[in-house]
Amino acid sequence: LPRFTGISIRMNTCLKSIPLSRLILSVSAVHHVRKAVPPAAVFCNQDHANNFLSANSTQRLQCRQAGSSKWSNIKDIKLSKDVARGALFSKIAMRIKMSLKDGSANPAANVKLAEALESARKHNMPKASINAITEKCQKSMENAKEYFLEYRGLDGVCLLIQLYTDNPKRGKGFVNVAVKRTGVSETKNTGSVRHVFEEKGLILAAAKIGNKKISLADAEEHAIEAEAEEVEHLGDNIQFLCDPKELHSVKTRLQEFGYDIESSELEFLPRSPIELDENGMQALAAIIERIEDIEDVLKVYPNIV
């Protein structure tokens, strides 16, 4: 008993020298540790202890796996965006190559090249990539050319498919696979679908100059002075149509008026567009998306409103 009394006296002396806040914190910490990890005395045997440690290890492993799964989801989303971005850059690169094959390497003398480069800048394509594509195309002896495929579907739908490839048979084969069992097929009368469309220069600009909103009447006056053929008010934008050969000059004049040009490109527009119901539009959009996923396909033009 004296021995235990001595221990008690020494413990009391030590405890008196410890601040109350630290003492409470220490006791609380010991309490939580004892709750989390039982002392060895509570285990019936060594197997019991091993099972406890194994269970806790499994929980920690599951937590890490959950974190990995979250990163996997983020990675998949990022990957899908990167794939879409890569596909867009591939289409722009194809347009640059096609314009260089058809004309001068000087954008001022080559409307198609000027518009392709403008599209590349609008979509934040790296300048190094643009220069590499331009240099490679100028040095190489590529056999790629522009081709058009003509397809018809149900309800009077016509599709003009623009290819840029060195193997048109391969491109056509991929398109036929994409439209299989959709009601869309290649027309046997060459030129019958091409005649449904006409090539135009299309310029889309913001419907304001500075802080001033532009009315349709103002836009029509500017269109006449810029030598555009048609103008249409589309919500927050104004669309100008012009002769394809005058696209660059019309765009330059509109910029001089103060317009913020959002896009300018050569398009094939239907002479007499048709209308589809909502289901028909959704089905056609899915078909066009599959076709445009093909590497050799530059663009698909439908004859719809």
**Based on DSSP secondary structure assignment, what is the total number of beta strands?**
10
CATH class of the domain at 150-302: Alpha Beta
State the CATH topology of the domain at 150-302. Answer: Alpha-Beta Plaits
* Shape designation: globular
CATH architecture of the domain at 150-302: 2-Layer Sandwich
One letter per element, helices H and strands E, the order comes to HHHHHEEHEEEEHEEHEHE
Coarse structural class: alpha+beta
- Give start-end ranges of low-pLDDT stretches: 1-17, 20-45, 52-80
Please tell me the overall pLDDT: 75
Major β-sheet annotation:
4 strands, antiparallel
Q: Report the oligomer.
A: single chain
Gyration radius (Cα, Å) is 35 Å
Query: What is the percent of helical residues?
Result: 40-55%
Arrangement of strands in the largest sheet = 3-1-2-10
Number of helices: 9
CATH superfamily of the domain at 150-302: YebC, transcriptional regulation domain
Quote the beta fraction: 15-25%
Domain TACO1/YebC-like N-terminal: 69-138
Family: Belongs to the TACO1 family.
Domain TACO1/YebC-like second and third: 145-304
Protein name: Transcriptional regulatory protein FMG_0893
